[in-house]
Amino acid sequence: MADTSPASQMPPLADDQVPRGFSFAAVRAGLKASGNPDFACAVADRPATAAAMFTSNKVVAAPLLVGQRHLERSHHQIQAVIVNAGNANCATGEAGEYAAQQSCASAGAVFGCAANHVFPSSTGIIGVPLPVEKLIAALPALHAALGRSAAHLEGMAVAIMTTDTRLKIAAASFDFGGATVRIAGIAKGAGMIHPQLQSAPGTALHATMLAYLFTDAAIAPAAAPDLLRHAVDSTFNRISIDGDTSTNDTVLLLASGASGVTIHGHTHDAFVRTAEDPQTALFSSALHTVCLSLAKQIVEDGEGIQHVVELTIGGALTDADALRVALSIAHSPLIKTAWAGCDPNWGRILAAIGYAGVAIDPTRVNIRFGELEICRGGCVSPHFDEAAAHGYLLQRNLTIHIDLGVGPGSCQFWTTDLTEEYVRINSDYST
Amino acid sequence: MADTSPASQMPPLADDQVPRGFSFAAVRAGLKASGNPDFACAVADRPATAAAMFTSNKVVAAPLLVGQRHLERSHHQIQAVIVNAGNANCATGEAGEYAAQQSCASAGAVFGCAANHVFPSSTGIIGVPLPVEKLIAALPALHAALGRSAAHLEGMAVAIMTTDTRLKIAAASFDFGGATVRIAGIAKGAGMIHPQLQSAPGTALHATMLAYLFTDAAIAPAAAPDLLRHAVDSTFNRISIDGDTSTNDTVLLLASGASGVTIHGHTHDAFVRTAEDPQTALFSSALHTVCLSLAKQIVEDGEGIQHVVELTIGGALTDADALRVALSIAHSPLIKTAWAGCDPNWGRILAAIGYAGVAIDPTRVNIRFGELEICRGGCVSPHFDEAAAHGYLLQRNLTIHIDLGVGPGSCQFWTTDLTEEYVRINSDYST
């Protein structure tokens, strides 16, 4: 079904994995102090069906406001995406909104579409006016650099990086009715990562998680938001590095239709039963695979991290309760520093479960590190072997299972440790 | 009125500042690996009126459960408090509860009161059985060491320290009707500090904030919980070092009555008007002073900290909204690391305000560092001077003012930065 290479094998992507109907480019516009590529675009051959999700932060960067408006005015038909790194265009007031609008108008003129069919994104420093003239000046070079290869898509993934140390890319495909449907995505993000994406922006601020998903499926416009939300809620909305929800987080899905396969989405009958056609099931699975791979690549590249932790919470009263427990653990400095030190201090985990604000019975809480039982019934497990637990934590990738024992609620969540290097990266002040 | 020495002047306390009617002692019971004093007590000449507040964590250490039970059974009359450091007696199951009960029974026998008149506390490592036989064996020495001097109270403050680097003590007094009423308090806590105290334990876990307040006022038993809650809500419940709410947090107030002055508390008439007698107003003010001093001393001694930050939030819709904004800022790793680096990165603060989950209008948000206007109307202030802002942040004690501009809600909150040293302290694993 969905044929996806694991994150560790990405890149390189093969040209054959790139969805049809799109071109990609990246250039240097002069926003990054490093002089690296910092301005990128994806252009569809014709307006593509679009769906987006934005940060739930009530402070929202200008490009998100403009992007949301363009989605509405274009009836969710986007032909060009332009993304700059090095400046978030946030906390920049009306001038920032005007700058985002100007960049779209100029891009539309260069790429041959209306401004409303252009979707802007920015990531980088906040509170500093966007030097939109540099973006406008770079548009002809961006247009000239357009290409359909995997290398072009990877170039876009590189240009949107800020504190990222690796490019993030994933792809999946499936065959249906004699045709191949491709999905590919790129993302950036390493700090200020706790996406809480919803269908409209709260109102957004700093660097930030950005993800762009491209497919050559044809998606009914009404079905696209639902398909995206379903994929995002169990992937990008289930990761956290530092608990700081950015003001610029954006996930955009573009469907060119070039494969000739139409995804109708879920249909609801009068009895409120949900049905899906076989291609929708295949598409949903492939989209989930791409989103999950990108979400995990972001966590893997977390600032200064030494451990990636998969939390599996079960036995909660509800799924929402399970998520609150995961968040409580993922945001505890004491737990995250213990992981950094490979310290099997399960008491800190039990404490974070206790203050998560959900219904628990401490005497029913079980904790496992991988296959090692650590805590049973709220006390140390009779099988607890401190040396073995410490040995388990020496690995980079950890799985911690929590069973609350009070209900059917569960969730999966991915997070990181908190290291001295994270503090160094984020406290380094050099004007 | 309340005559309180600032934290920086404590210790030493004068003997004359110690509330009458109590004796204090501390000895080595052999629980701390360092061999330092680790077992302490306070004994009242006769049962004292008691009120306590406990952690809201749903995982609660055994001594809190036993202490709560003894308060109920004794009708809030406590004669002896016993506190050990080095073992939290938490996540220890029924055996832990039995051990806490045993220590109270033995202490009662030594100090000449019923077990129900003994209040136990523990702080230290969790998930390890309490070596109660060591405590019981040390009780005669503890009894022999009892004394009424300031040095004895300070000895108790030293014995309850865990990762604390300084003892924490504060005192206040006032004269009424020709008599002097004294209040003195001691506290411990440096990490796992985000007290969320309430009148009954959720059910508690690690080291922990402990505070013991002694007064020679006579307090009507019905008035004591209200007086304590009023003081705690604006002091201990307004500090956070790392956001981790411990399972053992306890604040206990004991009133010996030895001054001969009776505090009647607040009275409510049929029209639900609240009145207070003059001595209640004086007592409330003095108790608040002692609690605030102890709360600030805890923040000042936060693990690895380089900055103490006073947050003043105003203009929120409600006080509860203001508190949520303060918590969002106080728990943001990106803001706390920026403080550590003296980095005037106000965008991170604006982002945390945005994801606090309260009603805001980003265009009305103003931020000041001390007297320096940094952000006005959600954008950089025209008066922003980066060098001056950086200069301000070089100080150890900072005041950050946030005005949300949408309502009358406000709060004050005290927190710290997040340094590499904090990570080192809490990730250091040595078996």
Task: Tell me what you see in this structure.
The structure is a homodimer of 431-residue chains. Chain A has helices at 62-73, 93-111, 132-144, 150-159, 224-233, 278-300, 319-330, 333-340, 346-354, 386-393, 420-427, and strands spanning 22-27, 39-55, 77-87, 118-125, 168-176, 179-188, 197-198, 210-215, 218-219, 250-255, 262-263, 266-268, 274-276, 308-316, 366-369, 372-376, 379-380, 397-403, 409-416. In chain A, the strands form four sheets. In chain A, strands 1, 2, 3, 4, 5, 6, 7, 8 and 10 form a nine-stranded mixed β-sheet that branches. Chain A has a six-stranded mixed β-sheet with strand order 17-16-15-18-14-19. A two-stranded parallel sheet of chain A has the order 9-11. Mean pLDDT of chain A is 92; it is low at 1-9 and 202-207. Chain A folds into two domains: 7-300, L-amino peptidase D-ALA esterase/amidase (4-Layer Sandwich); 308-427, ArgJ beta chain, C-terminal domain (Ubiquitin-like (UB roll)). In chain A, helix 2 (93-111) runs parallel beside helix 3 (132-144). With 431 residues, chain A is an alpha+beta fold. The interface between A and B is large, with 71 and 71 residues.
